[in-house]
Amino acid sequence: MKIMNIEKYKIEEYNQQADAKHTRKLEGLVEDINNYQEILKKLINFQIAIPSWALGSGGTRFGRFPGGGEPRSLEEKIADVGLLHALNRSSGAISLHIPWDIPENYQEIRALAAQYGLAFDAMNSNTFQDQPNQALSYKFGSMQHVDRVVRKQAVDHNIEVIKHGIELGSKSLTVWLSDGSCFPGQLNFRKAFQRTLESLQEVYEALPADWKIFVEYKAFEPNFYSTTVGDWGQSFLYASKLGAQAYTLVDLGHHLPNANIEQIVSLLLMEGKLGGFHFNDSKYGDDDLTAGSIKPYQLFLIFNELVEGMDARQLDHTKDLGWMIDASHNVKDPLEDLLQSVEAIMIAYAQALLVDRTALNAAQEENDVAKAQEILQAAFRTDVRPLVAEARKRAGGALDPIALYRSLNVRQELIKERGSKTVATGL
Ligand code: LRH
Ligand code: MN
């Protein structure tokens, strides 16, 4: 798997030929940013977890068009994330999905991840599909199911996922339940909620003391009338009733059209119940598109609320919230798509760090609406790409990860090594 290693000298060599142009742009940008060294430190320390289930080509019920060279094993998935991290030094963790990524040998998997400088972020359980050797079906739900034996099967699976995570050094479990109903009358909402809460409580009791559980909500799909963890209010209710180690998880694609996600983020953070994110973008439903590719202003506004709210609670930007991508790649090279998502997230974070909070606060307290917008958009309209690139360079990454990825023909090398028809486990 040598090809996976992008040697440091190749990155330095590439950066040298791009450095003059980069330095010129950076100097132009930072002459008006007096705290840019502090911002650079924050950008260098900010790590985004890559989903193990998004390293192959995604698809829909209408079709899937594999791009070739996809990882055939957990080891090759870790190597692919290692490659991303070598290029941008901001992808220092992988988030596993069970049973798609069951580690056969924990020591080997930990050692391989460490070789690439990767940690194991949140573990993800799966009670939205029936596995070949599964006794009872989740067709009518898992933790909400009318049959307590099915609920127990779902609880046992989540406890098993925690066990895998403990062996790998993960510190959190994300539970996304597809449970719900497709037709009025199909479900008793109150019983579904209580059965789900009881089941989550059994999982909660199995959590090690230093672990978190993230309750991920979603408005619809695969159920199209009701979802038992359907919005931030329901997730907040579960997390509040479960206890201090339970939090909500905000997947940007899981909202009804025109939801004000930045306001939801602000309030969940205020209540100390915001656990983390699944970053992606969407125009219609849970489209799982590249972060910042459709609504970059919304992504900036979300980070604006995050910086304001985290600083208000003296939270550590790098470790107090779960930063994860959850995307699916139907038409792009999965690795290029993930590099673009990380870049968009780093840009939104850098712009949010540029916001003059004292001036914004003053404008808000004076109801100077136009001034408040001017202050926000001054940050959003600042091209911070040289700052994000400088953070990458100082961390040993490439000034332009995608350009280097292409100039090294990585995808062709992967296809040569793995074949053009390989299919990665996942969505
Ligand atoms: C559900 C979801 C969830 C994952 C799955 C892969 O839409 O966002 O986070 O388990 O995608
Ligand atoms: Mn998600």
UniProtKB/TrEMBL annotation:
Keywords from the named record: Isomerase, Manganese, Metal-binding
Taxonomically, the superkingdom here is: Bacteria
Under Gene3D superfamilies, the record lists: Divalent-metal-dependent TIM barrel enzymes
Listed GO MF terms: isomerase activity
Q: Which InterPro entries match?
A: L-rhamnose_isomerase, Xyl_isomerase-like_sf
Against PANTHER family, the record matches this protein to: L-RHAMNOSE ISOMERASE
- Name assigned to this protein: L-rhamnose catabolism isomerase
| Protein species of origin | Olivibacter ginsenosidimutans
The encoding gene is: rhaI
